[in-house]
Amino acid sequence: MAVVKVLDEILANKIAAGEVVERCSSVVKELVENSIDAGSTEIKVDLLESGTKEIKVIDNGKGMDSEDALLCFSRHATSKIYREEDLYRIGTLGFRGEALASIASVSKVELSTSTGDIGTVVTIAGGKLISTSKGDSRKGTIISVKELFYNTPARLKHLKSLYAELANITEYMNKLALSHPEIRFSLSNDGKEIFKTDGSGQLLKVIHYIYGASMAKKMIEVHASNSDYDIEGYISLPEVHRSNRNGMITLVNGRIVRNSELNRWMKEGYHSYQPENRYPIVVLNIKVDTSIIDVNIHPTKMDIKFGKQEELNQLVYDVIVNSLKKKTLIPHIEEKTEPKPKVKYETFTLNFDEVKEPDVELVVNSDLAREEKIENKIEGIEIHEDVKEKLPILYPVGLVHGTYIICQNETGMYLIDQHAAKERINYELVRDKLLHPKKESVTMLIPITLEYPANEFMILKENFELLRSMNFDIEEFGMNSVIIKAHPVWIPTDYEEDNIKRILETVIYKEKNFDLQLFYDHVSATAACKMSIKANTNITLEEMEILIKDLRNCENPFNCPHGRPTVVYYSKQDLEKMFKRSGF
């Protein structure tokens, strides 16, 4: 008797739903992406109890006739591809034909759709067709998904709290709005509007809607291209950063994607501008011929493989680095006054323990008739000009707590962190020596011997020539050990062993995706920290003047190599406000 059997279609769909439909946000993703593929210019998402009771998506797309309305719930039914060749040139968000069948197998679905003629209404529960009937002729589609996971109690039990589910849906809708600024999106929960965009096609306006005006003011517009890729979007000033990667958004031909290697290069672009454990806000849309990317990797269609990944990595890195180099990056400390609120808001903070990589606060507009118009050029928001200003001439007048140098000029007051400033100076000095090496080394009276696990030792051994090019005298010394007899002259006295250990650890850590220039950056930052003036160290006025002069000669005088600011600025006007000397 045969033990191998073909699965029942409903059971097969429930199994597929395990990958496609993880939670409420998965349903929103699939339904809204279908609406986008249907050519919609306006998409509304209405939720009940954060989507656990109902998710309704309303669009004004091209709609479906009665035949397609029934067929679309069949497994592997799609209008996006027809031939094998189409799989290698996918230009739509959906194409696998699994989503609707999977969603319908674990919920109760009602579909109302029309191409402009007599419409069709289809009702399905648990994957079984309940009824079909004629509907109105409104062009577009309305799809309602109720009681998600009602027939799979184990999945239902593992849904997060209502706030966590709503946070995930909101996060994904935000990304969709950023990927398609030409579409009007709205999202509401239990009748309360969470956000709405105007479909003007202006990405900066969408950033304003999502992150607020103060964030939009701190974004830099970027453009770059090579023979295969075109990049456009916005990156944040270094002073804007978050505790997780959620703000690093990569779009490819309008599709929200995940690519850890690309994220790493975005982060590397901010190296020495931000702390290592903080992440920028980046919204980059990459346009590329569909033949050199592959999105058919996972049923969620978010993972992607790029042809010529190295060239793309370098393009992204270069556009971030070059854009930041053109900016004046001195944080401006302002005296803030609380504006009188125009709109009443109800604000609540999510329980982040239940949200993956959270950094979200939902602000729900309880005044549903909000009529706040924003002009095409967003009032108060200016895209930063590509003008580079070096650190202005500063005159030191004193030192606070042996750490902060007080300076002044005609525009206001500056505070310089002497340790951070010296770190930046030393970082650029060491980095220049690494990029332009000379045969300068110091022979050690007592060589240093270091032992490593076998896997780490093999990586070091492969990189002996690299270390020797940096003027290390390094050799194999017994089983899984190395001996260092000489080191570069820029390693500070009394800190030789600690610095050498850190540099060798960097070689080991950077073994994967190794890039020599980035390696030099990390080595320079490591050495600079040990070479610099410590906090609580009093220096003379003359030493302050020398330090400021050296800082002004730096390529980037605004941040230490670990991303902390070297200088902050108080304008004369701000000082007068603080001391109530200006007019009211």
Task: Summarize the structure in words.
The protein is an alpha+beta fold. It has 17 helices and 24 strands. It has an eight-stranded mixed beta sheet. The chain has a five-stranded mixed beta sheet with strand order 9-10-13-11-12. A four-stranded antiparallel beta sheet has the order 18-19-20-24. The longest helix has 18 residues, at 162-179.
- Count, helices: 17
Percentage beta strand:
15-25%
Largest sheet: 8 strands, mixed
Average pLDDT reading: 80
Features:
single chain, 584 residues, 8-stranded mixed sheet, 17 helices
Structure described in brief:
By secondary structure, the protein is of the alpha+beta class. The chain is built from 17 helices and 24 strands.
Summarize the topology.
Layout: H1 9-20, H2 24-37, E1 42-48, E2 54-59, H3 66-71, H4 99-105, E3 108-114, E4 119-125, E5 128-135, E6 140-146, H5 153-157, H6 162-179, E7 184-189, E8 192-196, H7 203-211, H8 213-216, E9 219-225, E10 229-236, E11 248-252, E12 255-257, H9 260-269, E13 282-288, E14 293-294, E15 305-306, H10 309-325, E16 345-349, E17 361-365, E18 395-400, E19 404-409, E20 412-417, H11 418-435, E21 441-451, H12 454-462, H13 464-469, E22 473-476, E23 481-488, H14 496-509, H15 516-531, H16 541-552, E24 567-571, H17 572-578
Parallel strand pairs: 1-7, 11-13
Antiparallel strand pairs: 1-2, 2-6, 3-4, 3-6, 4-5, 7-8, 9-10, 10-13, 11-12, 14-15, 16-17, 18-19, 19-20, 20-24, 21-23, 22-23
Helix pairs in contact: 1-4, 2-6, 6-7, 9-10, 11-15, 11-16, 14-15
